[in-house]
Design goal:
The chain has six helices and no strands. The protein is mostly helical and 262 residues long. It has a domain of 106 residues. It is elongated, with a radius of gyration of 50 Å.
Length: 262
């Protein structure tokens, strides 16, 4: 492949001519209307193959010259490598400097944030207001909240309003839970004072106490738990059912009967 190169060094000129011929086939306007597509394709393929062949010849020529240079004068190769390494070191140092500059900027930002967090709760006056006539100051952020960056006054007010709304919602939820707990405790105390379902609770003077509805009786029986073995209804003397079962039997036996017999 190197045999095609002459001593005058015309390989580069031939490579340039081949490249120009590849462009000329596609850019000339006179011969395109008269030529057929197959002829244009053949000419384009021929010019491209010649261009690729010359590129390979030139690559082989430079590789041979470099091999001879490394064999005859290795110090030149070492100098070239050293020069490239120095350039790489310079690029790395510039990159490190830029990183140090960014680190300094971030340190200043962190210092500003810490100073803003340690400042009084009211903070400076909003932008657009004089120092003597400060507008209404927003409330201080809750304790334990992370420090906020230096934001515009309108954004800070929006964030503080959102925090206040969240706190109000949490307080309302806590109050509702406390009210529900109080109601449950009151209901439990009332059920404990009323006694067994369906039976009047005797007062201190011996008179009958308040009657309990069947629904309250069933709820009290479930909350109190079974007093005997599970699955066996309690019976009184003579095999008569007592408690909610007796009431249930009575109501089922009265279904379909006229009002006079109930």
């Amino acid at each position: 492949m190197a045999a095609t190169t002459n001593g005058n060094g015309n390989l580069v000129d031939e490579f340039e001519e081949a490249f120009q011929s590849c462009l000329t086939v596609l850019t000339k306007e006179e011969a395109l209307p008269t030529m057929e597509k197959d002829e244009i394709r053949v000419e384009v393929d021929h010019t491209i193959l010649r261009f690729i062949d010359l590129a390979r010849q030139m690559e082989a020529f430079f590789l041979q010259k470099r091999f001879l240079l490394s064999a005859l004068k290795p110090e030149l190769v070492v100098k070239e490598d050293t020069y490239e390494l120095r350039l790489e070191l310079v690029r790395k140092e510039e990159l490190i400097k830029r990183h140090y500059e960014k680190i300094a900027v971030w340190q200043n930002l962190l210092a500003d944030l810490q100073g803003w967090a340690k400042s009084p709760a009211q903070g400076p006056a909003p932008s657009g207001l004089p120092n003597g006539n400060a507008g209404p100051q927003p409330p201080a952020p809750p304790t334990g909240a992370p420090p906020q960056p230096n934001l515009p006054s309108n954004i800070q007010q929006q964030l503080q309003q959102q925090q206040l709304q969240q706190q109000q919602i949490q307080q309302q939820q806590m109050q509702q839970m406390q009210q529900q707990q109080m109601q449950q405790q009151i209901q439990q105390q009332q059920m404990q004072q009323q006694g067994p379902p369906g039976i009047s609770v005797a007062s201190g003077s011996g008179g009958p106490g308040p009657m309990v509805s069947p629904q309250q009786a069933m709820f009290m029986q479930q909350s109190a738990g079974p007093r005997g073995p599970p699955g066996f209804p309690t019976q009184g003397p003579g095999g008569v059912l007592q408690g909610p079962l007796a009431f249930l039997e009575k109501t089922t036996s009265n279904i379909g009967m006229p009002e006079g017999r109930r």
